[in-house]
Each structure stands twice: as C-alpha cells, then as structure tokens.
Specification:
CATH class: Mainly Alpha
Structural class: mainly alpha
Low-confidence stretches: 1-6
Helix content: over 70%
Mean pLDDT: 89
Number of strands: 0
Order of helices and strands: HHHH
Distance between the termini: 33 Å
Number of helices: 4
Strand content: under 5%
C-alpha cells in the first residue's frame, strides 16, 4: 500500500513538473514574440524610404507584429482544435517574416549581418511554434 502511494506521488510530481515546464515555455514564447514584434518595428523603421523599401516595410510590419498577437489569441483558444488553428497562423506569420527579411538582404536594402539575429529569432520562434502544434495534435488523439 505504501509503495503504491509513493508511486502515485512520484507520478503526480512528474506531472506537476511537466506542467510547470509547459507554463514556463509558454511564458517564454509570449515574451519572445512580443520582443520580436518590437525588434521588427525597429528594423522596418530602418528600411530606406524607397518604393521597394516601403512595400517590404509594410509587409514585414504586418506579419512580424502579428506573430505575438496571434500567439496571445492562441492562448485564449476555446478548444484544442482552435489552439492548433491559431498556432498555425503564428507559424505562417513567423515564416512570412523570414521571407521578407530574406528579400531585404537579396534586394540589397540591408546586409545579412544587420538582420541575422532577428532572422534567427524568427526561426527559433517558428521551431517553438511547430513543436507546440505537434504536442497539441498528440493531445487531440
């Protein structure tokens, strides 16, 4: 009887630890997506005021700032399916942000060195988002 109780406590402790890790990861992603949006704003404001610079600025601002906004919406999802759908939008917007940063470099508007840190952050956010979606799909059954 005591051995069973000990096992139950160990399982409960493992579940609590997993839950705490998940909450910490969610909080980290919330902070990182907001910081990402602020960095995107700074990058967009540094683009040249040329026709191509303005188009890319507008596109990058839209998708880069929506990453965090859509993540917040996902955290308020009404169901697991709703969460997966909203996180899919986060995934798309992070990937689109990367696309516009690639164009900035390839169009010669900024050097790769100037945007590499922000590009890498977008890539990491994208990876965390995909991982969250995969985990949510496993819960879905």
């Amino acid at each position: 009887m005591n051995a069973e109780r000990g096992t139950g406590n160990a399982e409960l402790g493992a579940r609590n630890a997993e839950g705490e890790r998940r909450v910490m990861a969610e909080d980290e992603l919330r902070k990182r997506t907001k910081a990402f949006a602020l960095r995107v704003i700074k990058l967009a404001n540094a683009l040249p005021n040329t026709p191509d610079g303005r188009v890319i600025r507008d596109q990058l601002l839209r998708c880069g700032t929506s990453v965090g906004a859509n993540y917040r919406a996902a955290k308020r999802a009404k169901s697991n399916a709703d969460f997966i759908n909203k996180m899919g939008t986060v995934e798309e917007e992070a990937d689109e942000s990367m696309y516009w940063m690639e164009l900035i470099v390839e169009a010669g508007l900024m050097s790769e060195k100037q945007i590499s840190d922000l590009y890498n952050e977008a890539d990491e956010i994208l990876a965390m988002t995909v991982s969250s979606i995969k985990t949510a799909r496993k819960r879905k059954g």
